[in-house]
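Memo to structure team: turn this sequence into structure tokens by end of day. - J.P.
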Amino acid sequence: MSTRGEGQRPEGPGARDVDDRVATHTRRGFLIAAGTGVAVTGVGIWLSTNSGGEGDDAGRSPNNPRALPEYEPVYERAVTGLEVPLGFENCADPTVRADRSIAGRDRRTVGPVIDRFIIHHTGTTSDQLDFFSRCNRRSSAPTFYLRHDGSVIETIRPGAKPSSTGADWNWRSVAVETLDFTGAPEYTVTPAQLEEIAQMIAWLAGFDGRTLDGVPVRFRIDREHVITHQETWSGTECPGPFLQSRVDDIVARAQEIFTTS
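Reply from structure team:
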């Protein structure tokens, strides 16, 4: 995550004491799930004991733990959109969203565009929506937060500049923060998460040559346009070895979704 919207981020937000229950969503099986090292049976057990939209003892919704204003998400597969206090120029005075027309540490003026999809991981297996629902210490603001079952929370609108990758990338990208299923050293994710990342990429490609949430899109499904955090900055291992080794497969799956949809 980055500081005040433009810095680089450490590996992840770290574990938090937050509600780990999630809403269960049915997803098509991911074609490259075989050999991922994630036990599908184990995923099913986890979902059966930790899913559901009910609140906790304090009445908090697991999909909106801080009772933030909600909106109809731009990404139609998302569970909800949350008006989180992230992606602002000044987290202490959250009034103005970071502008996609400003880029780099030198704050140069650029033409707003979305031409990259950037994959991150949380660096922890503990649910992080509470962390992403407040002006956290790194002002971390991914576009999407992706849970173990493949469910997505849109934490800022795609038209807003994320604060996830770094000054030279935030202005031109959308970013997904993927909740790890296991910890170090592999930081695995589930087949449902792999499938949903591919679905997101295919969705974004549908806006190529058009606008998404008011921002022009120039995006193709290939390894130039689909990248990971470590490919933008050598100072991080994000999104971990498991996801990094599967980006080519994710791209191939996204191409299949796009051409058959």
